[in-house]
Design a protein that fits this description.
Layout lengths: L1 E5 L11 H7 L5 E5 L1 H8 L6 E4 L6 H10 L3 E3 L8 H12 L5 E5 L6 H9 L13 E4 L3 E6 L2 E6 L6 E6 L3 E7 L5 E6 L6 E4 L4 E6 L4 E6 L2
Helix pairs in contact: 2-3
C-alpha cells in the first residue's frame, strides 16, 4: 500500500506530473492532505482519507470544503513545534499501518524551513524507521532516505544532479556509475555532503552504517 501526502503551498511547487497522477490514479492510493494540501485535494475531486492541520490560513469556504469531502479530519493546534507534514506522516502511520511507502508531494511548500523539517523528520524517535519508506517530491527535487545496504538509483525525469547527505555518521559510502566515483568514504559529521551527477540512467551506491539522504535535482 502507498500513501500520498500533499502538503500546503503554491501549485508551482508540485511535481510536473502530480495532477495527472492524482486524477487518473486516485483509487490506487491512500490520500492525506496536510493543511492547504487537503483543500487542494478536494478541489481536484479527491476525498482525502485524512485531512490534517491547523487550517489557520484557510478561508471559511476552504474549511467547509474539507469538512464536507474529507473522510476524517484531525485538527492541529496553531501553536506547535512540528509541521503539519510531520503530523501527517505520524497519523498516516497510525491509521494505515500496512502502508509501506509514503510519498510527500510539494515537499518544500515554498519554504526552506519546511523542507529541512521534512528531511530531518526521519531521524526523530518516532520516525527513524520511516527512512526506507518516505520520499519527498517537488517541482525541482526528489528526496529519498536509505539505511545501510546496496542500492540502484533510477534517474528521475530531467533530474541529473545527485547529492548524498549523511544524516548521521556514515561508513564506507561508495558511489558507482556516477560522474565522480567514491570508494568506502567515511563521514563522521552529518554536515558533510557528496555532490555528484548521473552518467547514465542508473547509478549505484552502497554503505555499511548510518542514514543517508539522497537528493536528485534539476539544474
Amino acid at each position: 500500500m502507498e500513501a500520498n501526502i500533499l502538503v500546503g503551498g503554491p501549485k508551482q511547487f508540485w511535481p510536473a506530473n502530480f495532477e495527472q497522477l492524482a486524477t487518473k490514479h486516485a483509487q490506487d492510493f491512500i490520500w492525506v492532505g496536510a493543511d492547504q494540501g487537503a483543500v487542494a485535494l478536494c478541489e481536484l475531486g479527491i476525498s482525502p482519507n485524512l485531512a490534517i492541520g491547523d487550517f489557520d490560513s484557510a478561508s471559511s469556504r476552504d474549511q467547509f470544503l474539507v469538512q464536507v469531502r474529507a473522510q476524517k479530519i484531525i485538527a492541529a493546534r496553531s501553536e506547535k513545534d512540528y509541521t503539519d507534514t510531520q503530523l501527517a506522516v505520524l497519523m498516516t502511520e497510525k491509521y494505515f499501518p500496512r502502508v509501506d511507502k509514503i510519498n510527500i508531494y510539494g515537499a518544500t511548500g515554498g519554504r526552506l524551513d519546511h523542507l529541512l523539517a521534512n528531511i530531518f523528520l526521519v531521524l526523530g524517535p518516532e520516525f527513524e524507521h520511516l527512512a526506507a519508506k518516505v520520499r519527498l517530491f517537488d517541482c525541482q527535487n526528489s528526496v529519498s532516505f536509505y539505511l545501510p545496504g546496496e542500492y540502484q538509483l533510477l534517474k528521475e525525469a530531467q533530474m541529473t544532479y545527485l547529492a548524498f547527505i549523511p544524516l548521521t555518521a556514515v561508513k564506507d559510502l561508495s558511489l558507482f556509475n556516477t560522474k565522480y566515483r567514491l570508494a568506502k568514504a567515511n563521514f563522521n559529521r552529518p554536515i558533510s555532503l557528496a555532490s555528484n551527477e548521473f552518467m547514465e540512467e542508473k547509478a549505484h551506491f552502497a554503505f555499511s552504517e548510518g542514514v543517508v539522504c539522497v537528493i536528485q535535482s534539476r539544474d
